[in-house]
Amino acid sequence: MAADEKAQAKGEQAEGKVKKVVGDAVGNESLKAKGHAEESKGDLREAKEKAKDAVKPE
User: Fold this and answer.
1) How many angstroms from the chain centroid is the CA of residue 47?
2) Less crowded by CB within 10 Å, the N or C end of the chain?
3) Cβ atoms 5, 44 nearer than 8 A
4) Rounded distance, CA 21 to CA 39, Å?
5) 8 Å CB contact between 12 and 38
6) Contact 42, 11 (CB under 8 A)
7) Three-state SS sequence of the chain
8) What is the pLDDT, as a whole number, of residue 56?
9) What is the per-residue pLDDT for 17?
10) C-alpha–C-alpha distance, residues 4 and 14, integer Å
11) How many CB atoms lie within 10 A of CB 46?
12) Distance between CA atoms of 3 and 30, rounded to whole angstroms?
């Protein structure tokens, strides 16, 4: 499950980055904002997974 969440986080980060770049290139502020939000969501998901890994007993 953790690997699935990590992969989803990376996907959200990548998709958000693409939306940001495309929105910036075409001058679409709404798309750029959506991309930034999605990238941030991926960053938060990744941080959550890293925190879970750090707390997990070995």
Assistant:
1) 10
2) C
3) no
4) 12
5) yes
6) yes
7) CHHHHHHHHHHHHHHHHHHHHHHHHHCCHHHHHHHHHHHHHHHHHHHHHHHHHHHCCC
8) 77
9) 96
10) 15
11) 17
12) 31
Q: Can you read off the two tokens belonging to residue 10?
A: 């990376």
pLDDT in tens, the chain (58 residues): 578 988 999 999 999 999 999 999 999 999 999 999 999 999 999 999 999 888 877 6
Answering whether pTM is above 0.85, one says no
Q: Which residues contact 15 (CB under 8 A, 6 or more apart)?
A: 35, 38, 42
**Residue 1 has what pLDDT?**
56
Residue type, 12: E
Q: How many residues does the chain have?
A: 58
Q: How many Å apart are CA 15 and CA 7, to the nearest integer?
A: 12
Tokens of 22: 């495309």
